[in-house]
Amino acid sequence: MEYIFPQQFMFGSATAAYQVEGNNTNSDFWAEEHAEGSPYQDKSGDAVDHYRLYREDIALMASLGLKAYRFSIEWARIEPAPGQFSLSAIAHYRDVLQACYEHRLTPVVAMHHFSSPQWLMRFGGWGSEEVPERFAKYCEFVFQELGDLIPYVLTFNEVNLPVMLREVFSSIGIIPPVGIDGAAWTAPGWRASAAQLCGTTADRYVTFHMISDEPKIALLMEAHRRARQTIKRLQPNAKVGLSMALSDIQSVPGGEAWAQQKWQQYFEQYLPALEGDDFFGLQNYTREVYGPEGRVTPAADAELTQMKYEYYPEALGQVIRKVAKALTLPIFVTEHGVATDDDERRIEFIRRGLQGVHACLEEGIDVRGYLHWTTFDNFEWNAGYSMRFGLIGVDRTTQERTVKESARYLGRIASTKVL
């Protein structure tokens, strides 16, 4: 059976600056990697050298048939010191955007994808009351310089991930991929070393991934509002939103209250921040099932990904439906993917996920696009280079790119609009 998507439906792939560019030495994550006792398995180093190879990479994406590229701008490059903005960094991202247009890829830009300037930690990081204004000033500079080239912008990637990390990773007994102590949600000793590398102390070292209590969440939502206002003032036609990581929250008998509580924590508490947005970025990888005692572990015979998530591509369509009940905004799938060395399983994940998206379109839900995570096998935070999410493999000794069949598969769908 063929599934035909609207001609204007956007298909593409996504990256994050810190995970692909390499040598983001002014970022807080660089400090975390190099801290004494750091749990990061690898140093990011050159990553996949996308900061240098972006033109070749964008040409490769386009040659495969992809029609959109979601990437992030690194705040630590744009503003390496408070109030000091880098014209050379802006020139770089201007050329990234121009390369997208040259190759007919629609750019979707995230202003913040987890990593922040080291200097922000000296002001108290994401716990500082100054952070909404500082973030808005960064957005102002970028949009003064590049706004006419940015049609879609996410202020933040996965605003709810800190809460999910606290809840989800502690429940399945693994270290969160950002190195947070999931069980206690406190800063382990190595974070004091990371704070020192940022020129501050552990009590002021509040990274994006520690925004999990009400005061910090309120500051984050205000930062989003201030950024949106700034962007719309400078570029009224830019479409502004944010993204959330949303598992498909399910329940078995007796687990309904648990499931409702989790959905409120992961999604509903953030809804006030979306008032005035132009679209919603939805990101999904798996499901969570709750019973009378809380989270239910996957069945013994369940297929798990490298990230220890349950392989469950049907979650995507089901989450879209749940979000559409609460929002009237257009929905973009801004991430969906699977960590696996078996590319056939990746193709199957894409196929079944897109079948769910198509069913939502048939039901009249306003879904505008699908951006796969991720373009390349890249640096996956404290898991290092061990997780294979990419459509394109990379030999990091030579930086040679190897196109996987999943990339060609998604590219054909992007070009023909037929699944």
From TrEMBL:
Hydrolase: present as a keyword of the record? yes
InterPro entries named among the record's database cross-references: GH, Glyco_hydro_1
Q: Keywords in alphabetical order, please.
A: Glycosidase, Hydrolase
**Superkingdom as given in the UniProt entry:** Bacteria
Which molecular-function annotations from GO does this UniProt entry contain? beta-glucosidase activity
One Gene Ontology term, aspect cellular component:
cytosol
Mention one GO biological process in which this protein takes part, according to its record.
Answer: carbohydrate catabolic process
Hydrolase as a keyword?
yes
Query: Pfam families under this entry?
Result: Glyco_hydro_1
**PANTHER family xref list:** GLYCOSYL HYDROLASE, LP05116P
Name the protein family: Belongs to the glycosyl hydrolase 1 family.
Q: What is this protein called?
A: Glycoside hydrolase family 1
